[in-house]
Amino acid sequence: MEVKSSSKIVQIAQRLFGSPPSADEEQLERYPKQVRVLHWITAVTWVMLFITGLFFFVPPFGGGAVGGWSGLLHRIAAVVIVGWAAGYALMNPKATLESIVEAFKWGKEDLGWAMAAPYYYFFGREDKMPPQGHMNTGQKIWWLTVLLAGGLMVVTGAIMWFFKGMISADAFLWVSTFHAIGMAILLPFTLLHVYLSVVHPKMRGIFWSMWGGMVSAKYAASHHKKWYDEVKQG
Q: From CA 50, how far away is CA 56, in angstroms rounded?
């Protein structure tokens, strides 16, 4: 991915997110365009959902949020994120199923990753990390959290939206509580995901893989050796 260094915006982005792969180094495609579009739509709508969702829990605004602008924006964001994800799944059923299955596939290498992760993320000991596939163990944890906690929020949100007058007050309270639990789980994992993807020194520059879809072969071999070998072997 070629980036013009004269661009002020690009220079600022590089200071924030690290440098993208240079044009003269070998690169591998990691994320196709449809995945990247889904990622950024998800990111924007999640921010909207988190912010507008908080209004429901702030006493001075809670009642107004139900029928006010924040409530409307919350529902619009929910429709966008669920609709877009469903559309992607329908257009890419094989890739969707493979990614879901991968989130539930755990083995000895995942235990090895969990044991080596503190040495790597805190002390930079790359030699401690076992070879990883396209999705390393940390990414599996993140993706599994998205599937389970996100699924919980979709189901409970739909019940609160469409069945509010059809269930008892106690049932509605339980549903809203589980909806809040889903948010409480997703929020810290989201912040950790952003930190590891953007801020952590060992991950600097990986942000650009979700922008242009490419990673350097050096990064792929270092962080996802099993996936790198599969790609190189065709």
A: 10
Which residue, 176, 179, 146, 183, is CA-closest to 51? Answer: 183
Q: What is the mean pLDDT of each run of 10 residues along the chain (234 residues)?
A: 57 76 84 94 94 77 63 92 95 94 90 90 83 90 95 96 92 94 94 89 84 89 89 83
CA distances 202 to 14, 105, 134, 198, 207, Å, are 15, 25, 17, 10, 12
- At residue 29, the 3 state secondary structure works out as strand
Q: Parse the chain into domains and list their residue ranges.
A: 29-91, 94-234
Residue the block writes with tokens 């990064």: 219
Residue 27 DSSP SS3? strand
Its pTM stands at: 0.85
Other Cβ atoms closer than 10 A to 76: 14
Beta bridge partners of 27: 216
Q: Where are the alpha helices (DSSP H) in 92-107?
A: 93-103
Buried residues in 8-45 as b, exposed as e (16+ CB within 10 A): eeeeebbeebbebbeeeeebbebbeeebbebeebbeeb
CB 169 within 8 A of CB 160: no
List Cβ neighbours of 4 (8 Å cut-off, separation of 6 or more).
10
Residue closest to 206 by CA, chosen among 5, 21, 80, 8: 21
CATH of span 94-234: 1.20.950.20
On whether the CB atoms of residues 106 and 197 are closer than 8 A, the answer is: no
Q: What confidence score (pLDDT) does residue 1 get?
A: 46
